[in-house]
Amino acid sequence: MPTSSPSWLTDAVLYQIYPQSFADSDGDGIGDLAGITARLDHLAWLGVTAVWLSPCFASPFRDAGYDVSDYLTVAPRYGTNADLARLVEAAGRRGIRVLLDLVVGHTSVEHPWFLAAADDPTDGRYVWADTVPLPPGFVPSPGTRPGGFLPNFFDSQPALNFGYARPAAGEPWRQPVDADGPRANRDALLAILDHWLRLGIAGFRVDMASSLVKDDPGFTETAKLWTGVREVLDRDHPDAVLLSEWGDPAVAVPAGFHADFFLQFGGPGVGMPMRSLWNNRQGTDNPDWPPVPCYFDAAGGGSAALFAEAYEHAVATIGEPGHVALPTSNHDFSRLVCGTRTAEQVPAAFAFLLTWPTLPTIYNGDEIGMRYVPGLPDVEGSMLGPGYNRAGSRTPMQWDDGPGAGFSTAPPERLYLPVDPDPGRPTVAAQRADDASLLHLVRRLVRLRRDTPELGPYGTLDVLATGYPLVYVRGDRYLVAVNPSGAPVSAPLPRPEFATARPVEYADATVGADGLRLGPYGWGVFAR
Description:
Blueprint: H1 7-10, E1 14-17, H2 33-38, H3 40-46, E2 50-53, E3 57-58, E4 70-74, H4 81-93, E5 97-103, H5 112-117, E6 128-129, E7 139-140, E8 148-149, H6 180-198, E9 203-207, H7 220-236, E10 241-244, H8 249-252, E11 259-261, H9 272-278, H10 305-318, E12 324-327, H11 346-353, E13 359-363, E14 383-385, E15 388-389, H12 428-432, H13 438-451, E16 461-466, E17 470-474, E18 478-482, E19 489-491, E20 502-512, E21 515-527
Helix pairs in contact: 9-10, 11-13
């Protein structure tokens, strides 16, 4: 199990950018790298120290870029490799590192590797069954090669062959992990990482990181693969990081990653830790998810215990805080402002996110309280089911009240997705001008975390209550209380020494000898 990570990651505040809808510099209706570069001052002002970009490689965009056709070339819609280099350089001047989203478990059907494999029965780069009828789940060959391939997600995303942990007689497509095809793909993975790291990229967020080796009970062979990658990075690029889309930090970090995200899926509870916080069963929702009451909900029917227990288990397994990442949302999941959860409820969520010892990750737009927009069409594979349309979390960033919300000068019909039609939609410009806005609060909380070691990943955590309110002590000095419910709540004084604690940041919250009192959606950070 890896035991160290680059020091810069420990205190990082991450920010996810969905490039298609962040900032459009050339007026074609789609965001681009030059647009991101032009908006870096916003991120620096906010206090962000690292950004990760959803895939920006060449792609036919049947799954919004998660179907890569060239790992070494920026998609023309976003600009050029030189534009990416300029972005990395400009971000670095502002103390911001840039991470790329690496889709390594599959490619596009338009990748040259796949086009060659579809006509070559000896090619082992993909999981291919040269038999008729095809095994369940396989897709018929589009070329002269008989049989068909195994997709990794959509049918347009053929799984790269990293082998099977359990080969089986009579099923020749289940190649061992040391077969020629899997070894070629591992070599290609290392070459891709090395290429971008030598050009200044700070690391990668790895899409579907647990999906590489197939039929792998306990992810034993998958872990061997990633720990091998990690050993090479530690040797050749010791300041680079690997973040995983795994959804189970207690498994992913020992498997070789510097950090893993609690997500809406993953682990034995199928994303239960994150869903127990944010998922109000509106916006993006899967009816197959095991039900759990949402803690950050006005009804006050949830509990923070599921999350707290999962976090403590992960940290005990990992052995070091800061390796568990928690996002506000992401391009696949509902924003904080969603359905019946309104903007007034979001400050309490950020107070929690930025004072808990996870690695905080802000999805672009959440810092101003952008909402999940319902009722949008399927765009680039956004629709995964009747109640799961990811487009609602991918609408254009709302910079100002001008045309296209400052995202683009293109006419509305040419925009990648429509701007939120709500006339009261929040904007960066309006909130920058209002010291009482969510944006200013997020900035103050980011600064408080940065300037207060007890509130960062190394400060101790003592969870005192997981109901309403959630109460915990950081570094034996800071008391944090959060009430996401729409009703006032109170709690006994957790420790006598906090009777005279002073408020550091708070909203409708007090602490004294008679205990804690918080109004609806109230929260407070107090120091003794």
